[in-house]
């Protein structure tokens, strides 16, 4: 492709003439080769009002619960308390904070920034509560930049803002994913309106911010940008090999966070990597994209999205535009190729899938002069989004009520105590999960306690337990008790009760196990609600020097 500086004339996305001087004329959108029909120009789904309502609707499920009822969030809130009180108070006896630049700090840094004004719980609620709205806004923006307007099929993608990664509470990743979608929208816009060097200047720092939120969000940003740039260059007539090479070079300046990761040493990323090509797990992730509470209903939502994509494949009135379709294809290939575990992170392949699916839906274009199908698609998509928002709101109220009942156990936990937590965790194949896996994180936040549910993977968290004698019951996932005989099983309940360090822990909190399930002569039940129990640990064991929260061992 010839590249030369000069004056050019083209139209912006509102159809107004634009004149400017840049290094080269840049991309022309796929849709601009055909005139827009009346519905495409003036349909209600193309208006700013629809976009604003969609973004505001995405906030609704997060308004009622005091704590976002997402699986990992209570544990995150416990970590925020540890970071906010670093080096002071009782938590300094339990946790060491080692500050470093790592690619997993998005919500953490925002909560710390708000901490002078808000305590960690309301700050976390505020930051996490806006992530779905940010994701919806980013989806609509990227669709607008790619199509020149919001496409009729956009409503089918919007429920994926509450996809399974968000339901699991992967909040740093979901924030990074929203930034990846917004970054893709910005890249497409700058490719149309500015010379190349502007994108480099903008995206070098933007890539760093996205990596700081979450390293996998940063990887998604690079993957999507390469796909979009490849499509734009082939659209302008470049051979596909040259276009692919040039797209990779364009994204290369965004790779600089690799220098931080490589310079930090191999011990900074010490987690396991494995479980490649687990097709049964990938099939489970596919049907779980909208997994929330009700299995048949949630799977039906996924089926509707798949039907929308299949209709676009088969219908002569629809097609996929490359600037979003190729990034979506790259995301799908990455989902297939990634392992289940990567450097200690679980479900890494699953995280990519809903955002690739969203881009695929947003890539669908209904051809001009097909106003009736466009109106029907927009109405069905908007109704789908509205129904999912309503049911998510109900589900979150119910989850929040269950978590509040479980938190009544905090009344039996002394301030600054060390607590062994054992959670009856359903098998992954069981659709419903009460989301109590990390509920004990609120004992850290509210009671300044030590427990064994906090994450402490090298290179992925800043906190480190200060109770070496408690190992292996000093960190996640030692609190998770899966049903016996399942592949997911990490710890045996009875073995944990026999083996935990009596000189470290003063309380045992069993969640989902009735009182009396923990059978040991030195465990005294002090609280139960019929579903869970708290036990006091007797302190008459030989070898323990003190009864304090950091009970030391007597020298023998």
Classification by helices and strands: alpha/beta
Low-confidence parts lasting 5 or more residues at pLDDT below 50? Answer: 1-38, 545-556
- Principal-axis shape equals globular
Strand segment count: 14
Oligomer: single chain
Give the rounded overall mean pLDDT.
86
Count of helix runs: 19
If you compute it from the alpha carbons, what radius of gyration comes out, rounded to the nearest whole angstrom? 26 Å
Mind summarizing the main beta sheet? 6 strands, mixed
**Approximate helicity band:** 40-55%
- Beta-strand share of residues: 5-15%
- Distance N to C terminus: 79 Å
Notes on the protein architecture:
Helix 2 packs antiparallel against helix 6, helix 8 runs antiparallel to helix 9 and helix 8 runs parallel beside helix 10. Helix content is 47%, strand content 10%. The longest helix is centred in the C-terminal third of the chain and has 36 residues, at 371-406. It is of the alpha/beta class and 556 residues long. The chain has helices at residues 38-42, 48-57, 73-84, 91-94, 106-114, 120-147, 164-167, 171-193, 196-213, 215-235, 240-251, 257-263, 279-287, 295-314, 322-337, 348-362, 371-406, 441-447, 493-499, and strands spanning 6-11, 17-22, 95-97, 318-320, 341-342, 345-346, 364-366, 418-424, 450-451, 463-465, 480-481, 507-511, 523-528, 533-537. A hairpin with a 4-residue loop joins strand 13 (523-528) and strand 14. It is globular and about 75 Å long. Strands 8, 9, 11, 12, 13 and 14 form a 6-stranded mixed β-sheet that branches. Strands 1-2 form a two-stranded antiparallel ribbon. The chain has a two-stranded antiparallel ribbon with strand order 3-10.
């Amino acid at each position: 492709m010839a590249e030369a500086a000069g004056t050019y004339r083209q139209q912006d996305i509102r159809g107004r003439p634009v004149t400017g001087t840049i290094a080269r004329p840049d991309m022309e959108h796929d849709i601009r080769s055909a005139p827009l029909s009346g519905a495409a120009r003036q349909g209600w789904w193309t208006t700013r009002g629809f976009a604003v309502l969609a973004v505001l609707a995405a906030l609704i499920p997060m308004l009622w619960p005091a704590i976002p009822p997402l699986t990992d969030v209570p544990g995150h809130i416990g970590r925020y308390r540890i970071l906010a009180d670093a080096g002071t108070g009782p938590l300094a006896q339990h946790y060491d904070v080692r500050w470093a630049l790592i690619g997993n700090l998005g919500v953490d840094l925002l909560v710390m920034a708000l901490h002078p004004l808000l305590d960690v719980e309301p700050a976390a609620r505020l930051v996490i509560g806006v992530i779905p709205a940010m994701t919806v806004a980013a989806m609509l923006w990227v669709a607008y930049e790619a199509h020149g307007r919001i496409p009729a099929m956009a409503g089918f993608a919007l429920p994926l803002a509450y996809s399974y990664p968000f339901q699991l509470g992967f909040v740093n990743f979901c924030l990074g994913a929203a930034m990846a979608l917004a970054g893709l929208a910005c890249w497409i816009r700058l490719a149309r309106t500015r010379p190349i060097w502007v994108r480099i200047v903008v995206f070098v720092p933007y890539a760093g911010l996205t990596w700081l939120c979450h390293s996998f969000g940063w990887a998604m940003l690079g993957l999507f940008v390469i796909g979009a740039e490849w499509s734009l260059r082939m659209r302008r007539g470049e051979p596909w090999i040259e276009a692919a090479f040039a797209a990779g070079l364009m994204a290369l300046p965004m790779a600089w966070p690799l220098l931080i990761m490589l310079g930090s040493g191999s011990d900074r990323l010490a987690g396991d990597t494995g479980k490649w090509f687990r097709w049964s797990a990938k099939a489970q992730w596919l049907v779980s994209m909208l997994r929330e509470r009700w299995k048949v209903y949630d799977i039906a939502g996924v089926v509707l999205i798949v039907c929308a994509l299949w209709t676009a494949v088969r219908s002569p009135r629809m097609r996929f535009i490359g600037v979003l379709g190729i990034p979506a294809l790259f995301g799908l290939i990455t989902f297939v190729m990634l392992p289940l575990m990567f450097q200690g992170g679980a479900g890494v392949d699953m995280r990519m899938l809903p955002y690739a699916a969203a881009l695929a839906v947003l890539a669908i274009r209904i051809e001009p002069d097909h106003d009736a199908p466009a109106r029907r698609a927009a109405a069905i998509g908007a109704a789908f989004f509205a129904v999912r928002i309503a049911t998510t709101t109900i589900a979150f109220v119910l989850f929040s009520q269950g978590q509040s009942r479980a938190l009544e156990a905090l009344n039996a936990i002394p301030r600054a105590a060390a607590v062994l937590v054992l959670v009856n965790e359903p098998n992954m194949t069981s659709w419903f999960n009460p989301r109590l896996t990390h509920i004990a994180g609120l004992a850290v936040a509210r009671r300044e306690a030590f427990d064994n549910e906090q994450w402490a993977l090298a290179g992925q968290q800043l906190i480190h337990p200060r109770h070496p004698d408690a190992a292996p019951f000093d960190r996640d996932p030692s609190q998770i008790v899966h049903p016996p005989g399942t592949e997911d099983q990490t710890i045996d309940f009875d073995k944990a009760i026999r083996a935990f360090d009596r000189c470290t822990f003063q309380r045992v909190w069993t969640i989902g196990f009735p009182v009396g399930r923990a059978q040991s002569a030195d465990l005294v039940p002090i609280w139960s609600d019929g579903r869970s129990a708290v036990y006091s640990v007797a302190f008459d064991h030989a070898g323990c020097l003190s009864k304090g929260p950091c009970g030391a061992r007597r020298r023998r």
